[in-house]
Design brief:
heterotrimer; A mainly alpha (247); B mainly alpha (351); C mainly alpha (45); A: 7 helices; flat; C: mainly alpha; 1 helix
Chain lengths: 247, 351, 45
């Protein structure tokens, strides 16, 4: 698009971009400090406050980080959906950044969910993997959003990539509940070969620990999200400056 | 030289309508005179010629009617007899000036008044009729093309049957496993075969250079999606018509029962809904042969699970109603994804 | 328990690796912006 009269001088764009990124700001520092602090508290609770589990022993402590990561991964993908809808509706860069950042973090968290799930399964169920409903859906989720990121990478033009990704973001999200349902039914039709050793149930200390971990990871998610969105803003500036230079 | 060849090709079969795009490009003065003589001898007098040019003088000399297009709208139209080069130049400068640009953006384009501002029942019916006509036109084009070459349908069928063969060797099932295993193999073949075919819906257009034209034409976007979906669904049904009997014969399974047929009809539709959409999304992507399966397969998980479970149930216990919940899920999936796809499609093909 | 340690180790290694990645991306982008700013100042158009 040619703006014949209003080309922003590259230097102005550059100054703005760098300065907005380099001033951390009190808000950011406070938020980072809070995230750090609450994570420490949550970890203390996980290892020292919560009791060992009745059936599984100490290995059960993986549960807190596994479940927190899973919840945050689902939240991240809800945010991808929101960002995608927002972009399709408004076409502003901010929505696209939101979707992309959240997708990346979501994939990271989902990967960690799958790995911690596998590590947890080994001592408890004797197998490295189990095709139970939640793990399987997490795997499908992983593929959907990895595909999302791959698609973004495969399209060079910024606007077209954003639009294509937004479409996948919406469709993927709509697909997830149906996927879960189908996997769940499938599981009941084909029950697992070995009976899965259930846990004994959560004591009050465990519930508090879980809550703390959830809060801590939510704070971490928000922190990562903001970090990534600032980064995408910088990337946009580079894109714009390069485009202005060659126009 | 290229230009003259192109012109010769265009005039070869004495077209009723001749479209010229900057015909004087790359031609020297002598060739332009030759071209003019050629056109005046036939096409300019007998047929309809539509010419796009930036050369005002040339246009005025050759044409009967002159029009100026600005941002897709006719902002000026007059008979060539009523114009001189000077008046045309003035009109041109006037309509492409700053003021005109602002005004055109502000007011709704006059030439697109086929959309009635008030959605009266009559105009709604007219729009629906137009929508249907457009959709059917595109569908007919695709089907006629396919019937002529039979490339897509042959490729898809052979590939799907080969997949079944590979599965047989890879899994070597014994007879008791046949219903469950067979259902899985069948649907795996459908998906892999389908993926080959779906890609061509839009990528094929892109390769032939017709995708731009299709997108530029004032089609309702949804009509385009529906037409491509219908074409893909026809492809899947053609596949099913061949693959199902072969499969039934090869593995001695009772495929011709209502439950199986219903599952095939619904399952292939569900696959086509997602496949067509992603074909459009990946049409212009460099790595589209990789991206289409990468995007399609995870989202098709509910279809795979539902369809193969329903088929396995039907094949294993013919006449039982166990398939019904799965069919319900398939229907729900199809309905939801179809609705979402219709809404989203417009955003995919904005260029 | 070895598994417990492994699980948490993976999580923290993963998170820090991602943070490190983000950090280096930011540094790279900032550098690019500085270069482009300098180029823009030298050859204003």
């Amino acid at each position: 698009m040619q703006h014949s009269g209003d080309v922003a001088p590259s230097s102005q764009l550059g100054q703005a971009a760098v300065s907005s990124g380099s001033r951390p700001g009190t808000w950011t520092l406070l938020a980072s400090a809070f995230t750090f602090a609450i994570m420490l508290v949550a970890l203390y609770a996980t290892f020292l406050y919560a009791p060992a589990e009745a059936v599984q022993g100490n290995v059960f402590r993986i549960f807190y980080v596994h479940l927190s990561l899973a919840w945050l991964a689902y939240l991240a993908f809800v945010v991808v959906f929101v960002g995608s809808v927002g972009y399709l509706w408004r076409q502003t860069r901010g929505w696209d950044h939101l979707a992309k950042a959240s997708a990346e973090i979501g994939v990271l968290f989902t990967t960690l969910v799958l790995v911690t799930g596998s590590i947890w399964a080994r001592p408890v169920w004797g197998v490295w993997w189990t095709w139970d409903a939640r793990l399987t859906t997490s795997l499908v989720l992983w593929f959907i959003y990895v595909g999302y990121l791959m698609l973004r990478g495969a399209i060079g033009d910024r606007e077209r990539a954003a639009r294509a990704a937004a479409v996948v973001g919406v469709l993927g999200f709509v697909d997830v509940p149906i996927s879960f349902l189908s996997v769940f039914w499938w599981r009941t039709v084909h029950p697992p070969a070995t009976t899965v050793a259930e846990s004994g149930g959560l004591t009050p200390e465990m519930r508090i620990t879980l809550l703390l971990m959830l809060v801590a990871f939510t704070a971490l998610y928000v922190f990562l999200l903001r970090f990534k969105m600032v980064l995408e803003g910088l990337r946009d500036s580079v894109w714009d400056m390069e485009r202005d230079r060659t126009s | 030289m290229q230009q003259r060849l192109a012109l010769a090709r265009a005039l070869l079969h004495s077209p009723t309508v001749l479209l010229l795009d900057e015909p004087d490009t790359g031609l020297d003065l002598e060739s332009i005179s030759e071209l003019e003589a050629l056109l005046r001898a036939g096409p300019l007098n007998e047929n309809t010629v539509v010419m796009a040019t930036h050369d005002l003088e040339l246009g005025l000399r050759w044409a009967d009617q002159v029009a100026i297009l600005h941002h897709g709208t006719f902002v000026f139209q007059a008979s060539a007899r009523d114009l001189t080069l000077e008046t045309l130049k003035q009109a041109y400068q006037k309509v492409t000036g700053e003021a005109a640009r602002a005004v055109t953006r502000a007011r709704p384009p006059a030439s697109r008044s086929t959309e009635a501002p008030v959605a009266s029942p009559a105009s709604r019916v007219a729009r629906a009729g137009l929508f249907l006509t457009q959709g059917i036109a595109i569908l007919r084009k695709d089907l006629v093309q396919e019937l002529r070459t039979r490339e897509a349908v042959t490729g898809t069928i052979i590939f799907a049957l080969l997949a079944l063969l590979v599965f047989q060797f890879a899994f070597a099932p014994n007879p008791e496993m046949a219903p469950a295993w067979g259902a899985g193999a069948l649907w795996a073949s459908f998906i892999f075969g389908g993926m080959l075919g779906f890609g061509r819906a839009f990528a094929g257009e892109r390769d032939k250079g017709t995708l731009e034209g299709l997108l530029l034409a004032p089609f309702d976007r949804s009509a385009l999606y529906l037409a491509k979906l219908a074409a893909n669904y026809c492809l899947m049904l053609a596949l099913a018509v061949v693959a199902l009997p072969v499969f039934g014969a090869m593995f001695n399974l009772p495929v011709f029962q209502p439950a199986v047929l219903a599952t095939v009809a619904l399952g292939t539709f569900a696959l086509a809904v997602v496949g067509t959409l992603f074909s459009a999304v990946t049409a212009n992507v460099r790595t589209r042969e990789l991206m289409l399966p990468t995007l399609l397969l995870p989202l098709a998980v509910p279809v795979v699970i539902s369809a193969s479970s329903a088929t396995a149930d039907a094949l294993g216990s013919p006449g039982s109603l166990n398939s019904l919940p799965w069919l319900g899920l398939l229907a729900a999936f199809s309905g939801i994804i179809f609705a979402v796809a219709l809404v989203l499609f417009e955003h995919i093909v904005e260029e | 328990m070895g598994y417990l340690f492994a699980a948490y180790a993976v999580v923290w290694v993963g998170l820090f690796a991602y943070l490190f990645l983000l950090g280096s991306e930011v540094r790279g982008l900032r550098r690019q912006i500085e270069e482009l700013t300098r180029a823009g100042d030298e050859h204003p158009h």
